[in-house]
Amino acid sequence: MASSRDDLVRKMARLMQSGAVMLEQTCPICGSPLFRLPNGDIVCPIHGKVRIVGSEEEASLVEAEGVLKELVAYSAKSIKRLISSGSGPEDIGRWLYVMEKALEVADKIKAESTPASQSGRAQRKPRGKAGS
Predict the structure, then answer these.
(1) DSSP 115
(2) CB 31, CB 95: distance < 8 Å
(3) What distance in Å separates the CA atoms of residue 11 and residue 48, rounded to the nearest whole number?
(4) Which one-letter DSSP state was computed for residue 47?
(5) Is residue 89 assigned to a domain?
(6) Is the pLDDT of residue 118 over 70?
(7) Count of structural domains within the chain
(8) What are 51-110's pLDDT values in tens digits?
(9) Distance between CA 63 and CA 89 in Å, rounded?
(10) Rounded distance between C-alpha atoms, residue 37 and residue 48, angstroms
(11) 2-6, 25-29, 70-74: which range is least confident on average?
C-alpha cells in the first residue's frame, strides 16, 4: 500500500513540475487533490481529466454526456463487428442511426450547458473508448 501512495506522490510532483496548480477540490472517486494544468484542464493524478460542476443539474448533464459517449463507442464497435462478419447494410444502418442520434443529443447537451463554475463539485469526465 505504501507503494501506491509513493506512486501518487510521484504523480503529483510531476504534475506540479509541469506547471500544474493543486486545487482545494478533491477527486469525487478517490479523494486525491485535483490539479489545474497550464492549458486549463482539471485532472486527478489517478483518474485523469475531470470537470468541475456547479450544481446537481450540471452533474447530471456531465453524466449524460458520458453515457452518450459510451453509446457512440459501443455503436462504432458494433458497426465494425458487423462489417467484419459481412452483415447487410440494414444492420449497419441501424447502428449508424443510433450513433447519429446519440451525437445529436450530445451536441444539444453541450449547447445548452453553461460553463462550469470553478468553485463547484468535481465530477469525473468520462473518456471515449473508440477513438473519440
Answers:
(1) P
(2) no
(3) 11
(4) T
(5) yes
(6) no
(7) 1
(8) 777 788 887 887 888 889 899 999 999 999 999 999 889 999 999 999 999 999 988 888
(9) 32
(10) 11
(11) 2-6
CA distances from 132 to 7, 40, 49 (A): 28, 20, 14
Regarding beta strands 21-26 and 42-44, do their DSSP bridges make them parallel or antiparallel, or are they unpaired? unpaired
pLDDT in tens, 40-60: 999 999 888 887 777 888 878
Domain residue limits at 98: 55-114
Assigned C-alpha cell, 117: 463554475
Q: Report how far residue 12's alpha carbon sits from residue 130's, in angstroms, rounded to the nearest whole number.
A: 28
Q: Is residue 122 part of a domain?
A: no
Residues 6+ apart with CB under 8 A from 90: none
Q: Are residues 35 and 45 in contact, defined by beta-carbon separation less than 8 angstroms?
A: yes
Residue 127 lies in a domain: no
| Residue in the block written with cell 467484419 | 84
Contact (CB, 8 A) for 23 and 33: yes
Query: What gap in Å lies between CA 10 and CA 2, rounded to an integer?
Result: 12
**What is the per-residue pLDDT for 113?**
67
